[in-house]
Amino acid sequence: MDEQAIHRRHPAGPAGGTIPELEVAAPGMVPEAVLQGSRPLVLRGLVAHWPAVAAARESPEAAIAYLRGCERADAPPAVATVGPPDIEGRFFYDEDLAGFNFRREEVPLGVVLATLRKYLAHERPPAIYVASTTLDTWLPRFRAANDLALPGAEPLASIWIGNRSRIAAHQDLPENIACVVAGRRRVTLFPPQQLRNLYVGPLEFTPAGQPVSLVDPAAPDLQRFPRFAEALRHAMSAELGPGDAVFIPSMWWHHMEGLEGFNVLVNYWWRRAPAWMDNPVDALMLAIASLRGLPPEQRALWRDAFEHYVFGYDEGQVAGHLPPAARGVLGPLDEARARRIRAKLVQRLQQRGT
């Protein structure tokens, strides 16, 4: 099944629509069309066969016991994000964006699980969240029994554990398949093109490494953030239960909510690019330092240069007039050329005293 066929079968809705869905034919098997696709897709029942999902369907206590049985005895402490009850699970900035409304603590994962179990019956517990914890480091036995086959990808598998939470809309460079193990999740997605309408916060001072939208989708302040109304027109959402998954393509904005007193999600990240390629965010930051302060007419010239050498690159047009041996960085990008570019850039930055 190709990607177009998938989306004809489950078209995206209008404003406030739903994420297209696919009932997987074989649990644990992700269709290649999904892995190569560029549109989000809910995969109902993708990991319904996992033993961890069976435990979660029995009860939160059973899910916690299952995770405790997968712990590595000599694992390092996990990083737990903790906030007071009044943040209602929304881990975010403080009012003046100078700090955050939560703190981080290094504690054994077993202690986090025991604490979450203790608060299961509380109406207003503290917000507790263990984010992006590598399965192979903390819970290797979990992955041995609960895993996905992703042909052609070498993903990093991470686990996310907590009680009710609301994680501000952000985007990630890798492709992402997020699998719900316990609890329910509400996923709200915005296309990458909605960047201008999401009112993104600081690029270098972020709650968890990625810049986030400052708008709370649950209660958007449209007087302060009027363009967010346009972003909502393009939003798609879905509610996922244990065993369901969602494919989030690279750079799609996603707002994630854990809806129950105990929630577990496992996600798989991978890039459709060679491992030697650098992070484009580094190029963005350097471009801000190098180009944004230029006069408008010079910025326009550099926009044309980037289109020629990067975004619209065609080797014949760019370097066809040069002998192949003389094309240097204008030739096809490979690891050796990337290494030379990086070394030259580091040298120039060092010369400027940065």
TrEMBL record:
Pfam families named in the record: Cupin_8
JmjC domain segment(s): 128-285
Protein name: Cupin-like domain-containing protein
Species name: Pseudoxanthomonas taiwanensis J19
Organism classification: Bacteria, Pseudomonadati, Pseudomonadota, Gammaproteobacteria, Lysobacterales
